[in-house]
Amino acid sequence: MFSTIAEAFPYILQGTLVTIALVLGALALGFCLGLPLAVIQTYAPRPAARLVGLYVWFFRGVPILLLLFLFYYGIFNALDLDVGTIGASCVVLGLASSAYQSQIFRGSLQALPQGQMRAAKALGMTTLQAIRSVTLPQALRLSIPGWSNEYSILLKDSALCFALGTPEIMARTHFVASRTYEHLPLYITAGLLYFVITMIGLSLLRRLERRVRIPGYALTGL
Asked: I need a labelling partner for 59 at 20 to 30 A (CA). Which of 2, 121, 131, 161 fits?
């Protein structure tokens, strides 16, 4: 058993690089899309907010595994886009994450005192200037606890990408286990790798949260 783990560990460990790349890429894409979606839902006219609501409803309501198949075998294939399994996995996870991140940011924006926006406009700022200079810097800081939770969720969802053949931790572990029949020790090893990556990421995000925390502000329940 231990010899199998020792032999397979370097191979499985290579999958951590793919897993980390998937999570970081999906977080970045989700952030770039989720932040403007949150601003639209909070400040834009109702028709635009409703369109964003449909987007959020779709990606929060459809399972990740189905989205992976829908985009990789359906949409990307129909558009003749060869993005590879890693690219497809990153895009799908990022789109799904953008829906969740938008709600994290929207909650943070709505938690701020409404008087701040009125005060900014009274000083001569436009709505966009007030959002960029007053509300967004505060909302981003308040969003870090919810963003940490999204990191953990994305890390676990990344294991589903093995269904496309993405060579991440789960896919490599399954490949070795199906040939050595040492399922239990190998899957325990994979679980420990996920646990370590989770703890490292959360530790870094907690450190960031403490560094940029706004005295007197707290946002819970996201």
From this structure: 131
